[in-house]
Write a structure and sequence with these properties.
The chain has two domains: about 210 residues, Rossmann fold (3-Layer(aba) Sandwich); about 210 residues, Glycogen Phosphorylase B (Rossmann fold). It has about 525 residues and is of the alpha/beta class. It is built from 19 helices and 19 strands. The strands form four sheets. It has a seven-stranded mixed beta sheet with strand order 3-5-4-6-7-8-9, with helices on both faces. A seven-stranded parallel beta sheet has the order 15-14-13-16-17-18-19, with helices on both faces. A three-stranded antiparallel beta sheet has the order 10-12-11, with no helix packed on it. Helix 19 links the parallel strand 18 and strand 19. Helix content is about 40%, strand content about 15%. The termini are far apart.
Length: about 525
């Protein structure tokens, strides 16, 4: 799409209702910032994103005025028109919060509701620790340390170092190496001169923010990280008060919880959207079933004789049910998982087992007469990702796994929706990394007994990976160890498929325990389960 000579790249996902417009923020990044939201939201709604001018696939005009907040809002309206969107629920983070505020105030007919994440809306004084208000942006300095790096001369001198410093402040949470790397990479897709133009361009000031907030009439939600080192949470609270909006503080989260705490962010977003725009009811024209049959019926508004029907079974009257999540990376998992499932049924003949799995595992399981849960069709392909990472060269497993972060989150959200609506007694995860990681990050979501299976524990750096890879693998290992220590209740049973002698004698990293000793203390050993016996 082109507007006033500037090309703006946009994308559309899903086909549900309503439309969710994920706005750009400061063009130090582009729309990939929303990668942890798009798959989940697009399963339920229609999602539209666009790269803000100055980064990504959009143009980089050389005029300062082209980066005024009014231009970003005009781009948003043009994208709504280009996608035939009459109204949308808009979501903005940081500077995108300012764009969302102006859009909702000046174009109420186009905005059904608005969500602000860590919004940069100057309704309160900035954080004095940042010192960006007192350190000159335009003047050269003798030393560039800390927030003194927020200076155009330093940007021109060492742009990458500024990016690494800045995003280290954005993601203040421990173990945030991946989102920091992502954002530094996206920042390198633009340049210092473009950011300088944006910094000098007009933006919402305090008077305008007060005026806009007074004019907004749509429902609003403000989400703010309690440890936001870029925009303090009191600015978000001030905006919520001015709007009469809901305010959700995520204690311990930094500036971008959508990337660092995506499960909690996505669930909060969906909860708000569904309250503002309730989903269409699944209805039936059949006569209501008597209450004695445990069916709840309620007439749908305005449709006589139409009911929304649900059922519930008393706990002791339910059959035993297990959900088996089998890794698609290598059919060896499927062989052993099928053998385990058959043995479980032998011991518990009344046990029902459903599988949440992907190709090629589903093909193997279906041929074996197993029942695949329909939600499996919504899973993003992990095996496809691994194949694309391999290509014609050797696979770097750790790097490929790190780059699978959005796939793992998308698949965890499929799992979450499944077990929320269809409860099980037992979850079995054979190297279901997404399940294990996000349950430890969100322990309140555990609602069933959980068994974790694996045949390796911990990451080790490749010999040619250098200090950086050694640091990264140790950081991931440390996070895993911290998870288990803090929430031992998440894994009801952790089973190592193999024997203690299969474990390498190395440590998890500097200052961390030996892998074998730690594994022996936290796992049971099953010996080899091949499925070929």
């Amino acid at each position: 799409m082109e507007r006033d000579g500037v090309h703006i790249a946009w994308e559309r996902y899903g086909d549900g209702e309503p439309t969710i417009l994920l706005l750009p923020t400061w063009s130090i990044v582009h729309s990939r910032l929303w990668k942890m939201q798009i798959p989940y939201l697009a399963r339920h709604y229609r999602v539209v994103t666009f790269d803000g001018r100055g980064n990504g696939r959009s143009d980089r005009p050389e005029d300062v005025a082209a980066y005024a907040d009014t231009e970003f809002v005009a781009d948003a309206l043009a994208v709504l028109d280009a996608t035939a969107t009459a109204r949308a629920i808009v979501v903005g983070v940081s500077m995108g919060g300012g764009y969302a505020l102006r859009l909702a105030a000046e174009h109420p007919d186009r905005v059904e509701a608005a969500v602000f994440e860590g919004p940069y809306v100057p309704l309160a004084d900035p954080d004095p620790e940042r010192q960006t208000e007192t350190v000159p942006f335009d003047e050269p300095l003798e030393r560039y340390e800390g927030w003194a790096k927020y200076n155009l001369h330093y940007w021109r001198q060492d742009y990458r170092d500024f990016l690494e410093f800045f995003f280290g402040q954005v993601y203040s949470e421990p173990h945030s190496t991946k989102p920091i790397e992502d954002c530094v990479g996206w920042g390198l897709e633009t340049d210092a001169e473009t950011l300088i133009r944006i910094e000098r361009a007009p933006y919402v000031d305090r008077a305008a923010a007060r005026d806009f907030a007074a004019r907004v009439t749509c429902p609003c939600l403000v989400i703010h990280g309690g440890d936001d080192g870029i925009i303090p949470a009191r600015l978000g609270r001030a905006l919520a008060e001015a709007l009469g909006a809901e305010f959700l503080e995520l204690a311990g989260s930094g500036h971008n919880p959508n990337a660092r705490d995506p499960v909690r962010f996505d669930l909060a977003l969906r909860d708000f959207i569904d309250r503002v725009h309730p989903p269409a009811l699944a209805t039936s024209t059949e006569a209501p079933t008597p209450a004695g049959d445990a069916t709840v019926g309620r007439p749908a508004a305005g449709v006589a004789g139409t009911v929304r029907s649900r059922s519930w079974t008393r706990a002791c009257g339910r059959r035993r049910r297990a959900l088996y999540i089998s890794s698609p990376i290598g059919l060896g998992h499927a062989q052993r998982d099928l053998a385990i499932a058959r043995e479980l049924r032998r011991i518990h003949p009344d046990l029902e087992i459903d599988w949440l799995a992907q190709h090629p595992v589903t093909q193997f399981l279906e041929a074996s007469g197993e029942r695949i849960h329909p939600a499996s069709t919504a899973l993003a392909s992990e095996s496809g990702h691994i194949e694309s990472e391999s290509g014609e060269h050797d696979l770097h497993c750790f790097g490929a796994w790190r780059r699978m972060d959005e796939i793992l989150l998308a698949n965890f959200m499929v799992f979450h929706d499944l077990v929320r609506d269809d409860p099980y007694d037992l979850w079995i995860g054979d190297e279901a990394w997404e399940l294990d990681y996000y349950l430890h990050e969100n322990p309140e979501l555990k609602t069933a007994a959980y068994v974790w299976l694996t045949d390796f524990v911990g990451w080790l750096p490749m010999p040619d990976g250098g200090e950086r890879e050694a640091y990264l693998t140790a950081d991931y290992n440390a996070e895993m160890i911290e998870h288990i220590a803090r929430f031992p209740r998440i894994r009801d049973r952790a089973i190592f498929v193999g024997n203690p002698d299969d474990i390498v004698p190395d440590s998890f990293g500097p200052g961390l325990p030996k892998i074998r000793g730690w594994t022996e203390a936290h796992y049971d050993f099953a010996g080899y389960v091949t499925g070929f016996d």
